[in-house]
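User: Second chain of the day. Same drill as before.
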Amino acid sequence: MSNVYTKLMAARLKLQNSPLKKSGKNACAGYSYFELGDFLPTVQNIFSDLGLCGVVSYTKELATLTITDGTDSIVITSPMGSAALKGCHEVQNVGAVETYQRRYLWVTAMEIVEHDVLDATTGTDKGAPIKKSEVEAPKQSITPNAGALDNFTADQKDSLALIADKVAGWVKTDIAKAHAECESLENDEKVGLWALLDSKTRSALKDYKKTLGA
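Assistant: Same format as last time:
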């Protein structure tokens, strides 16, 4: 008889054989990654077929994912982080952290390997990202967003990346919510956030803003 561990392993194999596409973009380090929306709907369908259920919960100290088959459970935890982006109230910062923690809990549970993250941030002195120019010499171009993040601290960049994840996800499901999140930021933060968003997300936000007559 299958137990929760063998069912989870079966779920991982099914996900491994499913066609998934990375839609997340990290402009700072230059790599792509899976957003929750890229894999979670597929995971939920697989869990339903195998009789599994995953529930995420939070305390001040831990983010927890409990996977159960109704009889036995597997518990995966992660220490809670924090975000302190100026221009955002406390609930927005909490929401940003929870979104990020939720993603990493599921990535851990399903053994989702994101090689690009490692490739982009290892192999050079002090862990600095490997630039494409070190391997090849593509034509250099200057974009309107070039240098938009230069004046932000590492913590501020991390917080902006959390918000960028949320906005990119909301654009697909609730464009008004995504727009409101962007408008809640101060001007310099908006510029930094814009630099982290992919072109499709930026275009969607621009089109929505036009419908508002802004």
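The beta strands are 24-26, 31-33, 53-58, 62-68, 73-79.

User: Great, on to the next one.
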